[in-house]
Amino acid sequence: MTIALRVAGPGDLDALTAIMATAFRNDPVWGEYSYPGSRERLDTAAAVWRVYLAALIRHGWSFISAGGESAAVWVPPGERELTDEQERALEALLHELLGDAQAAIVFDAFERLDAAHPHHEPHHHLSLFGTHEDHRGRGIGMALLDACLERVDAAGSPAYLESTNPANEGRYMSRGFEPFGRVELAGGPVVTTMWRPARASA
Predict the structure, then answer these.
(1) What is the per-residue pLDDT for 94?
(2) 16: buried, middle or exposed (CB in 10 Å: 19+, 13-18, 0-12)?
(3) In this predicted model, what pLDDT tens digit does every residue of 17-68 receive, in sequence order?
(4) Three-state DSSP state, 55
(5) What is the side-by-side strand order in the sheet with 124-131?
(6) Residue 132: what pLDDT?
(7) Tell me, which fold does domain 5-196 have in CATH?
């Protein structure tokens, strides 16, 4: 399956937020563990996703399918996900929305994932990848991922991701990712980090 995609910009922020909020509604990490009540109410998680996505758009590596069904948000080699200012804004929002105790849980997850991030080789980091729940099961998400990996391969770059849902690991492995490490979250699930070596572009 081939798919039309484009680089997402600020005008796509509503669509990107809706994609990620619904895609991660039942995620073991970014669902109830981080945002209690998100299965019934998406507004809290969506508010956080919106700020995060708005920050990542600056890299020019956020891709959305032509119909707005799926999105993949990458961080290119040598770049940070968030600037110091963006991190402070996100932290303030989490405290406002979740309260101090729950915000601390979310930031602890961020910190553990950041500590596990590999630094042995420059790479493209797939920070967020999801398909809107209204469009799952049609192959759109994996077709989008394939199109993104073509661009990564053309850059001669390895790729890295954090799989927060074990159900997705087989899909990633079918695209050349292999388990790299494990990140245990406090009182919560285990995240599998995955690495895809650089390969020659076809």
Answers:
(1) 95
(2) buried
(3) 999 999 999 999 999 999 998 777 889 999 999 999 999 999 999 999 999 9
(4) helix
(5) 5-7, 62-65, 70-75, 124-131, 159-163, 190-196, 178-184
(6) 95
(7) Aminopeptidase (3.40.630)
Would you state the structure tokens that stand for residue 160, as one six-digit string?
Answer: 């890295």
Residue 167, both tokens: 């159900």
Domain ranges of the chain: 5-196
Q: Does 201 score more than 80 pLDDT?
A: no
The pLDDT of residue 200 is 72
Residue that has been written with the tokens 């799952």 in this structure: 136
Contact 65, 4 (CB under 8 A): yes
pLDDT higher than 90, residue 84: yes
CA contacts within 13 A on the Cβ side of 144: 30
Distance, in Å, from the CA atom of 16 to the CA atom of 188, rounded to the nearest integer, reads 27
